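note to self: dont lose this again. the chain is below, predicted strucutre after it. 220 aa total, dont forget to put it in the shared folder this time
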Amino acid sequence: MSDCNTRIIAPSILAADWSRIREEVEKAERSGADWLHLDVMDGHFVENVSFGPQFVAAVRPCTGITLDVHLMMTRPDKYLDRFIEAGADRITVHVEADHAVSETLARIRAAGLGCGLALNPATPFQEVIPYLDQIDLLLIMTVVPGFGGQAFMEVETMPKVASARDYRVDKGLAYHIEVDGGIDLRTVHIAAANGANVMVAGTSLFRAKDMSEAVRQMRA
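---
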């Protein structure tokens, strides 16, 4: 696992042009992206529907970089094997979802994948504490998931990012802290100052005039 203090830039495929997915993925890789973030939305856990394991499988041959798959699903445990088989490199599930969290995390680890846990802006940090020694990534949503175009929720979420950083140090753990939602060239530095190191960004990268320069500035 890469150092949890290393800045990682993960463009979100939701903001890509899906009709040109190979070109978009290759552009992201050429531009210096470290990971690609794939948000799976089931229309139940969140109100939008995005894509399923077949789409992940279609992206996999387009790139060798890490596919960071985020399951915004009510029953991630039910569909987990399909995403593993589709070629995900790491899978993140929500603490709020309807599943036995430790069992799901153990299945991800047993498959040899990176193992992540996510929490929504309204969920207290305390809800994930029992699982922090079982993961290598904690995703703190910085908008309400499932709705595009929202503003970065600094007041609600940055204290949790800071708490995750402090807890990691206090307990000698080594999980990445990932943020997703409203991340751009301004908010990326707010998130980093509070302890986040994995930056998921959609529109601000895929719609940038120069994606390479946008990635460079986000990493700076």
